[in-house]
Amino acid sequence: xxxxxxxxxxxxxxxxxxxxxxxxxxxxxxxxxxxxxxxxxxxxxxxxxxxxxxxxxxxxxxxxxxxxxxxxxxxxxxxxxxxxxxxxxxxxxxxxxxxxxxxxxxxxxxxxxxxxxxxxxxxxxxxxxxxxxxxxxxxxxxxxxxxxxxxxxxxxxxxxxxxxxxxxxxxxxxxxxxxxxxxxxxxxxxxxxxxxxxxxxxxxxxxxxxxxxxxxxxxxxxxxxxxxxxxxxxxxxxxxxxxxxxxxxxxxxxxxxxxxxxxxxxxxxxxxxxxxxxxxxxxxxxxxxxxxxxxxxxxxxxxxxxxxxxxxxxxxxxxxxxxxxxxxxxxxxxxxxxxxxxxxxxxxxxxxxxxxxxxxxxxxxxxxxxxxxxxxxxxxxxxxxxxxxxxxxxxxxxxxxxxxxxxxxxxxxxxxxxxxxxxxxxxxxxxxxxxxxxxxxxxxxxxxxxxxxxxxxxxxxxxxxxxxxxxxxxxxxxxxxxxxxxxxxxxxxxxxxxxxxxxxxxxxxxxxxxxxxx
Length: 518
Ligand code: NAP
Ligand code: MG
Description:
Layout: H1 17-31, E1 36-38, E2 40-42, E3 45-47, E4 52-57, E5 60-69, H2 73-90, H3 95-111, H4 113-124, H5 128-153, H6 155-158, E6 167-175, E7 178-182, H7 190-201, E8 205-208, H8 215-227, E9 235-237, H9 242-251, E10 257-261, H10 264-275, E11 286-290, E12 295-299, H11 305-317, E13 327-333, H12 334-349, H13 368-384, E14 386-389, E15 393-395, E16 400-401, E17 404-407, H14 414-417, E18 424-430, H15 433-441, E19 448-452, H16 456-465, E20 470-473, E21 509-517
Parallel strand pairs: 1-5, 7-8, 7-10, 8-9, 10-11, 12-13, 12-19, 13-18, 17-18, 19-20
Antiparallel strand pairs: 2-3, 4-5, 6-21, 14-17, 15-16
Bound molecules: NADP nicotinamide-adenine-dinucleotide phosphate and magnesium ion.
């Protein structure tokens, strides 16, 4: 079977009325399915527990998306044993067969694209374009990792080892074992699908613990994999509290690897816990951890200032600033500072805050804890900078916050250093472009960045010196595409695992060299 070349899933154009209408219809359909109860999946068993996670619509907090069963430690233990039993079979399934499950899932997800997106509109508070991009990325991961596994499994043909007479030498990439997959809520479909399917297509079996605020969309994915005939026990679905079952699974002696995407705090905690060796443990656990960012955009005086202002606003406020790649800082050189700040202010004032299902530009933040934390940062911002736009809750029946901009923030200010993960932009003034790059580099993170300039020498210098995993020139710092912009960051942004890149599956495999005398 030959597999066609990978191509990114196109985004839906929601300026076309019929596309908008199709999304509204999907939302209506999904609304008819709200409030259901969901079980755990442990092997072929469906386990409905007494205690449940209640997932709500962050844009309309009295609307329940669903009630999702919660694993306790005993159920997590059963899932661990089930996954190991299944591993013994699954690891022998040929790579092309494993990949075929991903391709089938991609085809079905493409058919039901708006439905998947509609769940995210309601459960995560994404507007149409943000939800659509999330679903498109999920499809891309399925298509890309399927192809990647095929490539890796046949690498001895395309990239043979150095030959010496009398020996047949081969490197093959074999799976690790059972992994624990811990995705965040902010790309509740794409990242959940990407991390899980990279692991399983590589021949591992997994325990998937979704984020507690978006478990229903994760369930929809698990159900899809069941529909395409993935053998039970390859993906075990075990929602539950990060603190309770998360720690139990991280510390478990039979956990072979942990694939985590989320905050720096939780990532470092997992890394620490996983480094300890339990009695009887046979391996050093592998930790793949993609964490936060304090991403920024640098603008010099030669730049297209309109484009820069648009890039700053899009990067800061897309999905309410709740992207690891969100451009929460802008650093602008003195000579064009006032002009760019005025443009950013004007563009921000135009953003409409409202219900995701009405497709307004800025929706709610994910939950009450987040909402309160962001508002505290905004109060702090009023002392650290000059408030230009927003600065308060936006009212309504959900966790709405006005897109907020502070100017004249010092490089070392909290607002310039800590990840806020909400619609808050801090702007700083730099003496010149080199000073601006130095300020850009002055955080503990290193995920995404952008440089706006028309000067080739400066661009060359920025490309070399801005220290981050994903660096963009004359474009916004969000919106990485699978295969096109492999994604992952430096320093406290994580292990730079480059999701959607050619190195990603290596993290889920170990290379075995076999040498045979001939
Ligand atoms: P989070 O609070 O760290 O949670 C992430 C996941 O970890 C959730 O599933 C959470 O479960 C779980 N968790 C919490 N405590 C745990 C523990 N002790 N052991 C094991 N798992 C535990 O992050 P988030 O709020 O979902 O996501 C936002 C963060 O993710 C931001 O910092 C953002 O920058 C980062 N992010 C990074 C990337 C990247 O590629 N670098 C991509 C997206 C997001 P519960 O929901 O049950 O608490
Ligand atoms: Mg929710």
